[in-house]
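--- STAGE predict ---
source: upstream dedup step, 1 unique chain passed
mode: sequence only
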Amino acid sequence: MVIGDSRSSLVVDRIEAAALTGGALMPVHARFGVRAVSAGIGHVEFAQAMGSYCLDRRGRLSPGAFLVGADAALGAAVASHLPDLVSVASLTIHLAFIDLRAPAADYFVFRARTTHIGDSTGFAHGEIVTDRGEVIAHMSTQCAFIQISEPPAVVAGAPIDDALLTLSDDGHEALSPIATARAGARLTAFGQEEVRLAVTSEPDMCNSRGSVQGGVLGMLAEQAVTACLTAANPDLAEAETMELNITYVRPVVRERPHLEIVAKPEHASRRFASAHAVGYDNSGRVVIAASGSRYRG
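--- STAGE serialize ---
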């Protein structure tokens, strides 16, 4: 397969159809505020409005709030090269947030471009920018190709709930409102040695194949890592940067909807800390692994 070929793409058609109505490509995107913008072979754009659901409880950007959009854009860029009966599954996602301070912005854009399409995997990278052109994060992925029996239909975009813009709840201080109010995440353990996060997935948190969308899993892993880092050093809630590496091991399927993520610190100092997390489904199988770090200058 050649990057940038001119043939038609079902993924491109689906994104453009959703963009015409200002809606989301899939219900899971709508649940977390991500709308379709534009697409071509090898390059796509999604967006989400600035609102309280983008922030943590201290008013800083919550990296997890951007993972559904990042996964959507990166995966769609790779999928735009593929035949209609081939889909993608994220193997890894890397996010580097270069400034966690909340910007003066009306919305954010996820811009993704393919860098390589192989026989069984594809790679993409991109950035998250504000409507004023300010880069807040860099992102990249590796995706595997998966045969499917029936291609998704081209339909109008799913509407996005405006209540996201003022989202709030009385969840745990260490978790962002989008994780607690939209994903149902809760902490079952919170200490300097270990953090445990639990959640039960719902149908509109899933992708078109019926498993939990990679961005939702990534968001929950980020929340566990961030809670672990701030438990080890509360000052890192005011960190300026965060890096996150996610590895997807196996899908979380409807038959096993419960997820527990266990995060432990690796290092914690006055300015910098790192932690790793492993997520398990309710049969005890590993589904996701993540590592992350925060720095406060």
